[in-house]
Amino acid sequence: MGYANSAIIESGSLPTHTTIRDWIVRSFNRHKGVVTEILGRSLGRINISFDAWSSRKFTSLLGLAVHFLDDEGKFRTFLLGLPQIEGRHSGENLADRVSEIIHEYGFEDRIGYFVADNAESNDTCLEDLGTEFGFNKQHRRLRCCGHIINLVARSILFGTDADAFEDDCQAEKEIQDEIKLWRSKGPIGKLHNIIHWVQRSGQRIEKLHKLQLIENTALNLEDKTTYNVVTDNATRWNSSEAMMERGYQLRNALDSLVQAEVTEWNNYVARRTQNGTKPMPKKSRTKPAIVDDKMSVEDWSVITEYLAILKPLKIATKRLEGRPKEGKFGAIWEVLLTMEWLLKHLEEFKVQHELDEEPHLRIGCNLGWMKLDRYYTLTEDSPVYLAALILHPAFRWSTVESQWGDHPDWLVRGKAAVQELWEEYRNLPVEQETIPEQPTVPRKTTDLDDFMASIRKLSTRPASLQSATRDEGLGADVVFDYKSETLVEELRKYTSGHLKHVFDCVSTEDTARKSVSVLGAGGSYSGLRPLPDDVVAWISGRAKYNMTLAYTAIGEAFQFGPQPVPANPEDAAFARDFWSLAERLLADGKIRVHKPKVNARGSGLAAVLKGLEEVRNGTVSGEKLVYTLD
Q1: Is the whole-model pTM more than 0.70?
Q2: Largest CB tally within 10 Å, which of 29, 50, 231, 434?
Q3: Same domain, 209 and 116
């Protein structure tokens, strides 16, 4: 303050009670023109984030910040306004305030994307702004990932009625009612009650520290540091995580504190009932609520499971909450991969706990997965998520197709949306001057970093290994690389020489010989196309030989390379029944077809020739190339 205002140094105090406010307003007006000029020279569109907030004195404010590249290519963030919101936080009201700030700084024609939380009022706000400034609300609406993760975590911890639960806790209720309400939430609720019970008494806090010292001494620990409990609140999931983490750390001391209360109550009951031989007198002490919150070994085990479930959410929050530097730490390309990683973790936890007798954890896993899946699906509304990923040089379309190959419809829609976005930007002038790189800040790696690194490897993996990843995802017990030089030895070892059937879907001379070499005694080989007579003779001397060629379904003779194929009326008759059978098998999910890759290199006969060249070069695996003849 002294640096900015010499009056403080001269007088040693603030002149009046309005001085700070006056200085802030004066400084704001002095810099406003400079900020407007910098915004006008930005290299691209100006992105906006905003959020409504109420102060402790119930003053409603709207914070609005902009994010952009300045004329030197430096990423900048400016807080442009903190106006008071009069009336409700309605979408229309929010839109009015946001619009005023946009007009005030004059970037109406450079509006980019909006980041806000998931409140419905923000959807309405973006609809009004889209109508005023002429943009597609869904395309420009980006959802705050931290808020999504908060909703997912609260669903895991408190269930579908998380907001109602919070409202009940904040209502004017007797403390006993609130304790019962928390206890209904299982081990988390019991631990919450214990933590707040300790925090309400200076004597209990002092006793907690003494119990920790006794434990540290008994374990001969060099570090004799003792800790306070960490209280949680119902609005921030990470406060619950911190409460559980510290609670588990202090579990022995907390158990001792609660057990002392339980023992005292049990002794009191024994005296009043003469060891249970008489009913409890009406004029007796009220049972301390903490007695019913005693944690069992199983309860503490559930707490550790909750911590394990929440750990990925904590990692993801840290990853996405920072300012992007060097294209990471909160960059938009990270969103889809982070959500995919979180879904993977929650799916694993769902399977792990689906048979648990303790319902809260099992239900929480399912509710958290459902909440995250809902918002993951909503990312499709804005093509910028996918565009950012495929424009990243370490990923591109090949990685996206490998990672999400089991969602062909999504890929088709995504490509169309990204193409539309590209058309919007393709004719804009591009500055050729390179932007200097910023120094990279070293950072400890996490499981999420490892996951993203594994996804990056997909774009450089051999085609057969990419296919293996898809096969594993479709339920294959084990997958081998058919191009491996040690394939025969690997298969023999895995099957212990007892393999009975091989269906060779490649059906070259090489794969046929390898397949038969793996078969055990009395095995059978089936291929997809004719093989030379000498190869057939070699196979027939070692296994039962069969060949399935779809072209025989036409019931006419034809030539397949050098091999003449005679007409086969039986195959033609079977084909008529097979089509209906195949439809049922596909509908029931009993068989799955190769992933179609439609017009990957364009359409028409010229593209077909390119596709054939890809097949010859061995760069196609686990997919069917399909071209339309426009």
Answers
A1: no
A2: 50
A3: no
Contacts of 418 (CB under 8 A, 6+ apart): 383, 386, 387, 390
Q: Is 117 helix (H, G, I), strand (E, B) or coil?
A: coil
Instruction: Identify whether 137 is part of a domain.
Output: yes
In this structure, what token pair is assigned to residue 107? 């970037």
Integer Cα distance of 493 and 503 in angstroms: 19
Q: Do 183 and 291 belong to one domain?
A: yes
Residues with Cβ within 8 Å of residue 328, at least 6 apart in sequence = 334
| pLDDT tens, position by position, 150-183 | 999 988 888 755 444 444 444 444 545 554 565 5
| Residues ≥6 apart with Cβ < 8 Å to 552 | 565, 567, 568, 571, 572
Q: Are residues 243 and 277 in the same domain?
A: yes
Residue where the block lists tokens 């910098």: 38
| Residue of 285, 286, 277, 221 whose CA lies nearest to 249 | 221
Q: Which amino acid is at 292?
A: D
Residue 183 shares a structural domain with residue 218: yes
Does residue 330 lie in a domain region? yes
- What gap in Å lies between CA 131 and CA 119, rounded to an integer? 19
The CATH number linked to 63 is 3.30.420
Q: Who contacts 339 (Cβ-Cβ below 8 Å, separation ≥6)?
A: 372, 375, 376, 379
Residue-wise pLDDT for 243-278, tens only, equals 999 999 999 999 999 999 999 999 999 998 988 888
Q: What's the sign of the alpha-carbon dihedral 98, 100, 105, 111? A: positive
> Phi, psi (5° rounding) for residue 189?
-65, -40
Look at residues 276, 618, 300, 320 and name the one whose alpha carbon lies nearest to residue 481: 618
Q: Dmax over Cα atoms in the chain, in whole Å?
A: 108
DSSP assignment of 374-418, as one string?
Answer: HHHHHGGG-THHHHHHHTSTTTHHHHHHHHTTT-HHHHHHHHHHH
- For residue 130, give both structure tokens: 């889209």
Question: Tokens 């479930």 identify what position?
Answer: 309
Q: Is 472 contained in some domain?
A: no
How many domains does the chain fold into?
3
CB atoms within 10 A of CB 466: 21
DSSP letter for each residue of 55-79: -TT--EEEEEEEEEE-TTS-EEEEE
Residues 6 or more apart whose CB falls under 8 angstroms from that of 382 comprise: 113, 138, 139, 140, 141, 142
Looking at the domain assignment, is residue 527 inside a domain? no
Q: Are 334 and 316 in contact (CB under 8 A)?
A: no
CA-wise closest residue to 63 among 42, 44, 48:
48
**Which residues are paired to 115 by β-bridges?**
49, 142
Domain that holds residue 185: 172-335+346-370
